[in-house]
Write a structure and sequence with these properties.
about 220 residues; alpha/beta; two-stranded parallel ribbon; globular
Amino acid sequence: MLSLIVPTYNERENIRPLWEGLTRHLEDFEAVFVDDNSPDGTAREIEALGDPRARLLSRPGKLGLGSAVMAGLVLASGEYVGMMDADLSHRPEDAARLYRVAREADITIGSRYVPGGKTVGWPLRRKVTSRGATLMARLVLWMRVKDPLSGLAIYRREVLDGLRGRLSARGYKLLLEVLVKDRKSRVQEVPITFVERARGQSKLDTSEFTAFLRLLWELRGYRP
């Protein structure tokens, strides 16, 4: 079974269309929504789904995306654990495609930057920023992975369990940290279409980019 961990903060209007997409494209799955006390009523919207496959973990405040994934892992019961955004930028059909091939690797990444992958609706500035950050991560950390900053990935459960206590889960770059601290895992990249959110506001800001740079510096000197 696949356990999808979905961090949420002010995503009320995206919950129902996301859930409809997941139930349309996936069968053997559950979604663990980790909500950081959203003031817009996101948690109530999740509860209103009335489906036991939609599990909710409510936290007292905004503690960050990376830590949300690690907190959700405690509730996740699947043999495979995935992470994805709640804003529909990660399409449910792409999550389903990743799951279909996940048994071929230990970490399956939804990649924007392999042949067939693309982004839709991004302004030029964001495209340049994303490409620049990705290139920086690959060069500094000597990575062959084309999209180590992807927010859509599926792991074998034992990969994340084996890293308990070794992940800082800082910011939203959990995948990057996993790739550095578990160099032995088999990794595959699957092309996806990343779509700019249609509803709500992006959570990315200067503090997130600063956290990324700090994490990159720390990982540069990591030794297992």
